[in-house]
Amino acid sequence: MIKKLLPVLGTLFPETLYRLYLIHANFIIKGAFGAIKGFLPQRTLSKIKVLGSDQEELRSNFSKEGVTPSCLPNWLEGTKDTPDTPLEPSHQEN
Q1: Angle subtended at Cα 12 by Cα 7 and Cα 16, rounded to the nearest 5 degrees
Q2: Is residue 45 included in any domain, yes or no?
Q3: Is residue 13 part of a domain?
Q4: How many whole angstroms separate alpha carbon 81 and alpha carbon 73?
Q5: Over the chain, what is the mean pLDDT?
Q6: Which of 20, 29, 35, 84 satisfies CB 3.0 to 4.6 Å to 25 for a cystine?
Q7: Residue environment code for 26-48, b if the CB has 16+ CB neighbours within 10 A, otherwise e
Q8: pTM: predicted TM-score of the whole model, two decimal places
Q9: Cα dihedral angle (8, 11, 17, 22), rounded to 10 degrees?
Q10: CA–CA separation, 22 vs 61, rounded Å?
């Protein structure tokens, strides 16, 4: 049923994804992605990269895709000025 529903949803909601990098993905994320990728169109799958925590692997994949260090935050060894941690909450004081 899901495989029949996805093409209909694809026509109603056109794909706008350019690229998606899942970085520092542990075995749970990799397993979950493996379970759902059978339901995703090949066009979408070709835009998704699931990467681990190895900095050399990250650099190599980003380089192949044309992602320069100026686009990457400091915590990914890039040069973009961002917070030190990827999920640092923003605090606004009133």
Answers
A1: 90
A2: yes
A3: no
A4: 6
A5: 78
A6: 29
A7: eeeeeeeeeeeeeeeeeeeeeee
A8: 0.63
A9: 0
A10: 12
- Count of structural domains within the chain: 1
Q: Return the DSSP state at 76.
A: G
**What was the pLDDT predicted at 28?**
93
> Which amino acid does the sequence have at 37?
K
Tokens of 31: 């397993």
H helix or E strand, kind and range, residue 28: helix 27-36
pLDDT band at 31 (very low <50, low <70, confident <90, very high): very high
Q: Does any domain span residue 61?
A: yes
Side-chain-facing half-sphere of 56: CA atoms under 13 Å: 0
Range of the domain at 63: 34-69
71: tokens are 């686009």
Residues in the chain: 94
